[in-house]
From TrEMBL:
<dbReference type="InterPro" id="IPR025521">
    <property type="entry name" value="Neprosin_propep"/>
</dbReference>
<dbReference type="InterPro" id="IPR004314">
    <property type="entry name" value="Neprosin"/>
</dbReference>
<dbReference type="Pfam" id="PF14365">
    <property type="entry name" value="Neprosin_AP"/>
</dbReference>
<feature type="region of interest" description="Disordered">
    <location>
        <begin position="100"/>
        <end position="139"/>
    </location>
</feature>
<keyword id="KW-0732">Signal</keyword>
<protein>
    <recommendedName>
        <fullName>Neprosin PEP catalytic domain-containing protein</fullName>
    </recommendedName>
</protein>
<feature type="domain" description="Neprosin PEP catalytic">
    <location>
        <begin position="168"/>
        <end position="424"/>
    </location>
</feature>
<dbReference type="InterPro" id="IPR053168">
    <property type="entry name" value="Glutamic_endopeptidase"/>
</dbReference>
<dbReference type="Pfam" id="PF03080">
    <property type="entry name" value="Neprosin"/>
</dbReference>
<feature type="signal peptide">
    <location>
        <begin position="1"/>
        <end position="22"/>
    </location>
</feature>
Length: 424
């Protein structure tokens, strides 16, 4: 009797160990295992070299012509381009900007400006020319997803403009602090975000800062191109601040997933999409930035992306419907998911976790996006009119305008702590 009881304990412990090992409360059947292996084989192309990153990632250097983008049915015959045909003209037109505040006097002097960030894996090696660095998808990454099919996907997730969209956003528990361009025709955008490592309370929440390039409306098959930084435990298995990209051509229904989704054609051998960005900014300390520039090539219509001065790659025009022609709205700012655990707003932070207005001196304390510009139909960079929108009480946003030639240009501060006395 006693022996068998001990035996049962041992069996139980082994079962718990196995349960934990699979990660997510799931005991897998062999078809599921086969499905996961199939997905991993699709996502992880045979590398010519692999680099172990200090953050636990494996970065595979994959031959540029074998990247997952070319698995997309629309890109079967695609000939890779290494350079855009055109860059937007850097001339800035004098456009009146709706300002809510005067110029900040507390920015850095030109000699002590913010530094750009790098990626953790750079300390352990480089990808050779002719390859691109890809963060390897591990079995446990897939197991964290609610289903194998949903790995890397996202549901409704863009700043709401009308009542239908607001309803969807509330249902999905998404909250925003964003600056949005008003009606127009846009062929690109540019801006620099400072990087933070916000606290995210629940594993199925996230906190991010990004740009949205939007064509169409939710009910007619929204197209988006998105890029920025995010903290998202469910997707990456840690709390690191990571570079992400995203696109959809049907309002997040069938298309659309983070990072490894086929479709984005990468040309750069230094930047791993999904890789950890390091270091991040410190309150009252050094500020580190991610400068994002995305524009539509006037000749081929592809949307190119440059990050911190590195040409990263492009979204081919053929992936899209509305964005094949132009974007009709451009947003910058922050988004979080609040699961409202135990009837409270969670303590998930946006940006630095500080409200912009609670500080005399915002620079080095709150999250910002500076030098926001958009590309017009003549391929010129322009200063946009920004309209601020935010979730009251939990997060906030303050737009500010300075002379377009200075360090700040059109910029805004945003973020907040989540749960606080005004946001219970
Ligand atoms: C690729 O080329 C083949 C043969 O020319 C053609 O049948 C097919 O439609 C093309 N696919 C795409 C997506 O353009
Ligand atoms: C902004 O600056 C102008 C000129 O320096 C001044 O007249 C105005 O009162 C300021 N506005 C605010 C909101 O501080
Ligand atoms: C991430 O942050 C959460 C919330 O602070 C913490 O509970 C968790 O242990 C962290 N996870 C990792 C992998 O560091």
């Amino acid at each position: 009797m006693k022996l068998s009881f001990h035996f049962m304990i041992v069996v139980y412990v082994l079962m718990v160990a196995r349960y934990c090992y699979t990660g997510n409360n799931k005991l897998l059947t062999s078809p599921q295992n086969a499905q996961i292996q199939k997905l991993l084989n699709e996502l992880n192309k045979p590398p010519v070299k692999s680099i172990n990153s200090p953050d636990g990632d494996i970065i595979d250097c994959v031959p540029i012509h074998q990247q997952p983008a070319f698995d997309h049915p629309l890109l079967k015959n695609h000939t890779i381009k290494m350079r855009p045909n055109h860059y937007p003209n850097p001339k800035v037109d004098e456009i009146k900007v709706s300002s809510t505040m005067n110029a900040s006097k507390d920015g850095p002097s030109s000699s002590s400006s913010s530094s750009s960030t790098t990626q953790s894996w750079h300390s352990n090696g480089k990808c050779p020319r002719g390859t691109i660095p890809i963060r390897r998808t591990k079995r446990e990454d897939v197991l964290r997803a609610s289903s194998i099919q949903s790995y890397g996907k996202k549901t409704f997730s863009f700043p709401p403009l009308n009542s239908i969209e607001s309803e969807l956003a509330i249902n999905e528990q998404h909250e925003y602090a964003i600056a949005s361009t008003s009606d127009g025709q846009f062929y690109g955008t540019k801006g620099a975000l400072n990087l933070w490592n916000p606290h995210v309370q629940e594993s199925n929440e996230f906190s991010l800062a990004q740009t949205w390039i939007i064509g169409g409306t939710y009910d007619t098959g929204l197209n988006t191109i998105e890029a920025g930084w995010q903290v998202y435990r469910d997707l990456y298995g840690d709390n690191n601040t990571r570079l992400f990209i995203y696109w959809t051509s049907d309002a997040y229904q069938k298309t659309g997933c983070y990072n490894l989704c086929s479709g984005f054609v990468q040309t750069n051998n230094k930047i791993a999409i999904g890789g950890t960005l390091t270091p991040t900014s410190q309150i009252d300390g050094s500020q580190y930035e991610l400068a994002i520039f995305i524009w539509k090539d006037g000749k081929d219509g592809d949307w190119w992306m440059d990050i911190n001065g590195e040409l990263v790659g492009y979204w081919p025009s053929s992936l899209f419907s509305y964005l094949r022609v132009k974007a009709t709205r451009i947003d910058w700012g922050g988004e979080i998911v609040n699961r409202g655990t135990n009837g409270h707003h969670t303590t998930t932070q946006m940006g630095s976790g500080k409200f912009p207005q609670k500080w005399q001196q915002w620079y080095r304390r709150a999250s910002y996006v500076r030098k926001v510009e958009t590309v017009d139909s003549s391929n010129y960079l322009r200063i946009p009119v920004l309209n601020a929108y935010h979730e009251p009480h939990c997060y906030d946003i303050m737009t500010r305008v300075t002379n377009e030639d200075d360090y700040w240009g059109t910029h805004f501060y945003f973020g907040g702590p989540g749960r606080n006395k005004d946001c219970p």
